[in-house]
Request: fold
Amino acid sequence: MKRLLTAVLAGLTVLTAAACGPTAERGEIVVTTDLLGDLTRAVVGDAAPVTVLMATGGDPHSFGVSAKQAAGLEQAALVVANGLGLEEGVLRHVESAAAAGTPTLLVGEHVNAVPYRDSANPDPHFWTDPGRVRTAVEAIRDRVLADVPGIDADAVRARTDGYLARLDELDRWMTERFAALPPERRKLVTNHHVFGYLADRFGLEVIGVVLPSGSALASPSAADLAGLAGAVRAAGVTTIFADSSQPDRLARVLAEQAGVRVRVTALHTESLTPPDGGAPTYLDMMRVNTDAIIAG
Reply:
């Protein structure tokens, strides 16, 4: 009987270790959005598992998480979130994990965020400026090295250096592309406040947006649309850019109200695409968007 009891206790000890050990040993990094997930994977490669909460092609303002995913935030070695009010559907879960002691990186706090042009609220869409993405990648690297146990530091630093070089190359290419646009053609109308950072970085002018808020969950009034239609006519805008993950009905309504021939062109603004969708990575997304904006 004594031998049997000893064996049972030993077995329970093994089971308990198996149930509790892997979370800490694996050093899982949980990321809120697919854009940040791409940047995080570029930094860590195979050195640590990365779980992304938002589905590809999702809306960072409105996506939610399951109870299991919320619990996983508190068990992560590191949580990486955009912050600045972007993840409206999961913010309380991120805050809860941070309060429980989970290492949490709010990337937006490190990129010198600026407010929306017509609001005091910070603009969370910093990724349209590759220079700020460079800063974000450095912040992710530093927190991964500090908080993920057993990480291969040399591999992380080498991967980060390689990716930063690619970001610098992207920045130079975008600078050359936008500089070739005549000044009078550097005007943007979009369906959502997304391109403030891109406009500041590359000398463009956002003359208006269809949605009068930083959130894609907002709705414009008839007066908003009428005012923006006047701006479109006055500026001679030929293309309205709409997020590829959002219906472009409002942008088309504006095009009709403007009383001029205006195209509606889709851009990948707040999420990536599947591998065959044209913008499966951040670098791909920025190149595709730049080409579309130049063409428009």
In short: The two ends are 81 Å apart (CA to CA).
